[in-house]
Amino acid sequence: MTPRTLHRGSRAFSPSGLRAVCVAGDEAGARHLETWELTEAGPRRRLRITLDQDLPLTQCVALDDGRALLSWHEPGGVQHIDLFDLTGGRRSLGPCPTPLRLLPGLDLPGWIATAVAYGADDHSTVFRVGDDEPWLTPVVRLPGRLGGAAAVGPCLAVTAVVDGTPTPLRIDPAALESDRVTRLTGDGSGAGVGHVLLSRAGRVLLALDTGAGLRLGVTTGTVVRLLDGLGTPDSTVTPLTLDPTGGLLAASVNRGARSELALYDVESGAIRQVATPPGVVGPEAAWTHRGLWLAYTGPTRPTVFGWVRPGESELRSAPAQAGRHPARLERLPGAKGSLEAVVYGPDWRAGAPVVIVLHGGPDRHWTLAFDSLFQLFADAGLAVIAPNQRGSTGYGREHADAIRGAWGGPDLADIRALRAYVDETRGPDAPRPAVYGSSYGAFLALLAAAADPDGWSGCVAVAPFSSVPALYADAYRPTRNLIDRLVGHGDVDDVLGPRDLLRLAGLIRTRVFLLHGRLDETIPVAHARALAHRLIDAGHGHVTYREPADRGHTALTALAGAPQPREITDFLTRPDARRGASVGQENRPPLAAMAHN
Q1: What CA–CA distance (Å, rounded) separates 104 from 451?
Q2: CA 36, CA 47: separation in Å to the nearest integer?
């Protein structure tokens, strides 16, 4: 039987919006480059090319003639760009002289893609990518790091930091050097521009951060008119694309764990809702005479190219995969109010084993997107509860900002309250819940295991860190930037004390499973090694440690037959997870492996 697709990432539409490309992964662990034609009758896959290795950090560009570009990084970080022809033939354009972000090409001779590089001099360079030598040609140099970007016809619109403020710029590579860049006026309030869209009719749409939430504005020439009516305090709006005339804006309206599709009339302000199955929309989209195209995923549908036919108000997509578990949303108690949770598998109120799954970030949230790990857990009879505790995005600024300067504070309180509610509801004879987390969620899961030593049947931590100060000292710059941006510095003043897992390890009594990829460039693997040694030295009776040599930060992928997800599933479901079970020590990382990567 052909392995089923689990995900489609690195998605991109061609400049005309009539073709698409992505990198797909299947249950057997294979990776494929897929090219698609977007027809009046729906998406039609044209090529499926098996890639000979697991390529990290991929980017794709779809060309209007059916060809595709694939950017990938080899171990050690060198970036390569390959060109695939209409038959699947592959040609290397060459290694990149500097890290490049790829964008669609422009309607200009020899311009198959656009690339942007950010240099050490705090300037960005825009390049033309061609299929002949020289394949990379600089076009213009701009101040700061470029944010949102859109390529339509012969022009490119970007946001750049000008005088300390994100500012929209229009780039016309065919113009003379002195006229090549035009500054688009902001709204006069000093608002930064985080996103910019272009229509083929020349209309520009800006997403403005006014300090009071997202506002949308359209500009013609130097005049910006703000739009109202799309967002609410408990939702976020992501502009996706404009129709060919620039008169309609497609936007995803995200409310908690699900998103909906809305069409906004730029002139009248009228909003038309598009019937959308429970799931997640976007952010990639294109709008052509054949309809509106976008990425869509739901609990039983790995990401597909969905479409809205001209004149219709219904999102069409590929059918659900047979045998997949649906998801449901529930409101469950936190420490200070209810929390929304995504729930899979059997009714957690009955006797099935339960796992409370914590997301990473922390600036993320669980959604109704397809999740292969949740499917695997549900296959094994686990009831999955994935809460969006305080600190999660998608529920307004107050909910997200609750943990600023207090990582492991209000969010930990919510998880403890949820665990207590689940235990109380299920009764004294039911198995205690287990806790699972990845990245920041792994840190939070281990904190929960320390805070309630007898409250959990097991704890799985994938790519954990021991403390925020230790991570800040050890990590690469992007991770330190994230900690600064999310105000991860600071600590919580309560009975548990500083959130340092090396200090708290002696409190943890439940079984622990640690998994950390040796190639992780986000959280150094030394953190998991140190935690394993500290747990064992503190006399912990059962610590399982796994360190895949060929994996990075996303060390766990739920592939059919892969050892790590199966082992974790067995860990969460086996009989000694029940109350009163005894535990025994397992493998200890070698001391020689404790040096930082």
Answers
A1: 49
A2: 7
Per-residue CA distances from 212 to 206, 215, 231 (Å): 16, 9, 12
Question: Which residues 6+ apart lie within 8 Å of 87 measured at CB?
Answer: none
User: What is the Cα–Cα distance from 298 to 303, expressed in whole angstroms?
Assistant: 7
Query: For 569, phi and psi rounded to 5 degrees?
Result: -60, -45
Both structure tokens of 318? 């590929």
Q: What integer pLDDT is reported at residue 155 of this predicted model?
A: 83
Sign of CA dihedral 481, 487, 490, 496: negative
> Which amino acid belongs to residue 47?
L
Q: Any idea which residue has 């869209």 for tokens? A: 197
Q: Is 1 exposed, middle or buried (0-12, 13-18, 19+ CB in 10 A)?
A: exposed
- Report the chain's terminal Cα–Cα distance, integer Å: 41
CB 303 within 8 Å of CB 297: yes
pTM for the full model? 0.85
Do 26 and 3 meet the contact criterion of CB atoms below 8 Å apart?
Answer: yes
Helix segments in 335-467, DSSP class H: 372-379, 397-401, 410-426, 440-451
Tell me the pairing of strands 543-546 and 512-515: parallel
DSSP label at residue 321: P
What are the tokens at 77?
Answer: 């970080």
Rounded Cα distance between 11 and 88, Å, is 18
Tell me what the pLDDT averaged over the chain comes to. Answer: 84
Worst-scoring range by mean pLDDT, 31-35, 152-156, 429-433?
Answer: 152-156
E-state strands within 146-189:
149-152, 155-162, 165-171, 181-183
- 126 in Cβ contact with 119 (< 8 Å): no
| pLDDT of res. 587 | 53
- Quick: pLDDT tens for 511-567: 999 999 887 888 889 999 999 999 999 888 789 998 887 676 776 665 555 678 888
Averaged over 138-167, what is the pLDDT?
80
C-alpha angle 394-399-402 in degrees, rounded to nearest 5: 135
Q: What angle do CA 33, 35, 36 make, to 5 degrees?
A: 145
109-117 own/partner pairs: CB under 8 Å, 24+ apart = 111/173, 112/61, 112/63, 112/67, 112/69, 112/83, 113/61, 113/63, 113/69, 114/149, 114/151, 114/156, 116/146, 116/149, 116/158
The strand pairing partners of 332, in sequence order, are 339
Mark 297-325 as b/e (b = at least 16 C-beta within 10 Å). bbbbbbbbbbbbeeeeeebbbeeeeeebb
Cα separation, 475 vs 465, whole angstroms: 10
Backbone angles phi, psi at 246, to 5 degrees: 80, 5
> What three-state secondary structure class fits 372?
helix
Coil/strand/helix, residue 182 = strand
Under a CB-based contact definition with an 8 Å cutoff, are residues 444 and 528 in contact?
Answer: no
- SS3 at position 584: coil
Residue-wise pLDDT for 314-360, tens only, equals 999 988 888 899 999 999 999 999 999 999 999 999 989 999 999 99
